[in-house]
Structures are given as structure tokens and as C-alpha cells.
Amino acid sequence: MEEKHKDLIASKQKSLINTIVAKLSELHPSLYYSSTSEIAYEIERYINSGDGLSHDETEVLKGLSRNDIQMILSLHND
Q: Quick check: 23 and 75 in contact, CB under 8 A?
């Protein structure tokens, strides 16, 4: 049961990260050409600003380090 909960959280985190990347790409089209570490930094800033995220979304993403975000970005979409 706990494993399913962890998988659900990981799935939500990945989905939210992808949504944030799409939003940031609209604002900054050159983001496409940035390194994963630069994109992770921008995502981290977006999360920490709290703008554009609901309380629940912020709760799902809080505690993610820049390295965690980079790992999520590197996972292949199924």
C-alpha cells in the first residue's frame, strides 16, 4: 500500500514538473536550449515563489532538491 502511495506522489511530481516546464517555456522560449541543471534551477525558483501553484501542488513538490528535479526531468515519458 505504501509503495502505491510513493508511486502516486512520484507520478504527480513528474506531471507537475512537466507542467511547470511548459509554462516556463512559454515565458522563456530559449529555455529549450538550456541545460538540465539550468532548467532545474528555474523550476526550483518557480516552486519556491509559490506563484501559479495551488497549495496541494506546492505540498507535492516541497522538499524536492534541484538534484531531485534534474532526476525527474531525465526520466523518459511513457
A: no
